[in-house]
Amino acid sequence: MKRDPGDAPDPSRREFVSCAAAAAAGFLLTACGPKRLVEMPKERLQAALRELERQYSETYGTAVTVADTPALPGVQFAYALDISRCIGCRRCVYACVEENNQSRDPQVHWIRVHAMEKEKGVDFTHSDPYYEPKEVPEEGRFYVPVACQQCENPPCTKVCPVGATWKEKDGIVVIDYDWCIGCRYCMAACPYGARHFNWAEPSIPRAELNPNTHWLGNPPRKKGVVEKCTFCIQRTRAGRYPACVEVCPVGARKFGNLLDPEGEIRYIIERKRIFVLKEDLNTVPRFFYFYAT
Amino acid sequence: MRSTLVTVLLAAACSASGYGGDESTASPRTGDERLEIPPPPFSDGIFPCTSCHADLKVNRTRRALTEMHDDIQLRHDEQHRWCLDCHDATDRDWLHLASGERILFEQSYLLCAHCHNPHQPRFRSLAPKPAPHRPQRPKEETGGLP
Q1: Global pTM?
Q2: Which class for A237: exposed (0-12), middle (13-18), buried (19 or more C-beta within 10 A)?
Q3: What ipTM, to 2 d.p.?
């Protein structure tokens, strides 16, 4: 092909080589840059977690541990809640706040208890989460606590533009609080209102911090990140019940392994009338509501 | 000699003070320890009941006992209840439910629900914990709510 004299000249060999070298260096630098903890090699993750522990311990003046306990093989967590038992006392809400280091001010609650009229049945349009009678249960009302439904097919994880939230192998939907950019797409996608945003710098009184944390669960969060229930990942992966199950004074909350044929969850699913919230959305919740009586 | 009926009555009354069980069996619930139920408070040599009853003719008539076990004073709805409501007449080493299903002496607590509804009253009323704050715009400077 013949060239016009006005055309830019071909890059010289020297120019080409220096450009290529710069591109290669750029690529390498990017690859070595910050990474999601979940993608890190084990040693680097450990180092990062120890650093987090150091930071939290310094801030709160107590020895904070940040575990990275992986999903147990053969375990698929699921939850069941007996609506005929729940009396709406909100013990679970505050046990959750204390266990999972939610901000006290501004207030963040992972569990919301909806009071509903028995005459209307389960009806979130007319439910009242702000009920405050002297004593519960109130005449003619029943209560439906709602937190993250830990969907099998979670819409929230699909919309995250940075991959900061995903479903773990044991079914728990988790958030990497250090990777979340606070765009709140996940909150818009969640049909259960289960995700909560830290609009301001969260505050936890030093003495009330729970120092036993899991990096995907309850370490203190920062302003501008989304958070939600993780089935108390720091407890349940260590073989304990979630805090809300332990505190419930009427035994309305049940938790266990879906794969355990002798477990409570399977017993309930196989023998009780169960339902899930917004079944028609095909989110396939791991949170079952049932009426035991 | 105390009768085995006492076992049922004490268990049915659900009264901790009524137990004459071994103290060491009532262990606290910690960690992975199993919850142990105190054994029935049998007097020495009274069990198995069939060691005497196997050879005796069964008399199902409600009556005051005079020949044996006459030291037992039933003080648990005594107008309506008597021994064979809970003790199995055909095999004295067992108790039985209202359905006729036989149960071990260790399971005597299952008999309570025949008269007492475990779900009545359902649950004690409680003062609820505070309602959540209504959504508000946080104060930027302090990080707190207005």
Answers
A1: 0.67
A2: buried
A3: 0.80
Which tens digit of pLDDT belongs to each residue from A126-142?
A: 999 999 999 999 999 99
Rounded Cα distance between A3 and A82, Å, is 81
Residue A199: CATH number of its domain: 3.30.70.20
- Name chain B contacts of A85, Cβ cutoff 8 Å: 123
Enter the DSSP assignment of A56: H
Among all residues of chain B, which has the CA nearest to that of A138? B125
Domain locations in chain B? 1-118
Which of A97, A110, A199 to mutate: most B Cβ within 10 Å? A199
- Given an 8 Å threshold on Cβ–Cβ distance, is B129 in contact with A293? no
Whether residue A46 is contained in a domain is answered as no
In a domain, A286, yes or no: yes
Q: How far apart are the first and last CA of chain A?
A: 87
SS3 A171: coil
The label of the residue with tokens 């003790």 reads: B87
| Structural domain that includes position A138 | 77-291
Residue A175 lies in a domain: yes
Among chain A residues, the shortest Cα distance to B127 is held by: A135
Out of B128, B137, B143, name the one closest to residue A203 (CB). B143
Task: Find the largest Cα–Cα distance for chain B.
Answer: 89
Residues of chain A with C-beta less than 8 angstroms from the C-beta of B118: none
